[in-house]
Write a structure and sequence with these properties.
Major_OMP_Legionella; signal; elongated; mainly beta; Major outer membrane protein; two-stranded antiparallel sheet
Length: 317
Amino acid sequence: MLNLKKTAVAVLALGSSAVFAGTMGPVCTPGSVTVPCERMAWDFGVQALYLQPVVDHYAGYYLDPIGGRHYNEVEPDWDWGFKLEASYHFGTGNDLNVNWYHFKSDDNRSSYLVYSPEIIGTPSTLPVPAGNYPVGVVAEPSWDAVNVELGQHVDFGEFKDIRFHGGVQFTRIKHEMGIAAFATSVSPFPAAAAAGYTKFDGFGPRIGADMMFNLGNGLQIYGKGASALLIGESKFRDAVTTLGTFSGAGYGERDALVPELEAKLGVAYTYAMPQGDVTLDVGYMWINYFNAQHTALTTNDFALHGPFAGLKWVGNV
């Protein structure tokens, strides 16, 4: 029994010497989370957007001779849009922000050969003899979004800031399309044509966060994300003519619940002046509205992506 006690004491002594031997390791000190000092200010900003819509509407589908369904890419061109915004800053890092995005892509034209004049999604089959026909497509998507945000700025230590925000979004998406099939490549008039549009108007809650990392001397990099859930009306209308004669039309509308996701990555530089601060902002954005468009046979997403650049001025009240 005595030997057992001596052994236990020796083990404890050896263990304690190992614990206290050497130098002390690094000590982790929790960082502080603070809000800015109380401030009242206004800001106004404008951004130029250079975006490309991403669509998967029915205009690109056709049937081959054995009934297989193929897709010819109908890709809208890159085009210009803008964002306007204004904010009122109050309290300890609070702000009320209103911003408006506007984009419209005009005169997007593409063409391809199609076997059989039937275009999947039109209200009727076009009674033209089977064969390879030149087909032209015109697509003009447009998008407007108005966001109202109530934000809270929080400082996570010396270099990291996050602005949390919540609010509402109103969105309007409209996509006008025209399709024409010609008897030959030199025919001045189409043998058959279809025209129509899809449209979504929605409203709902929106939340997000703007995460910024300060590099010093007014320079910062950021990542921003937001999501909305919109309820609204989705509708479509189309009509078909064959050899100049009206052949049929389709129309439909329904309530739709549309989720939306958006993300931005960019760099900002702020220059301080006696009259206020001016911020130059450049980055890249991605936006997607799920199942926002529908036709007689399909339900489709609407998405945008592209670079942007802008200026913002912040002045104290």
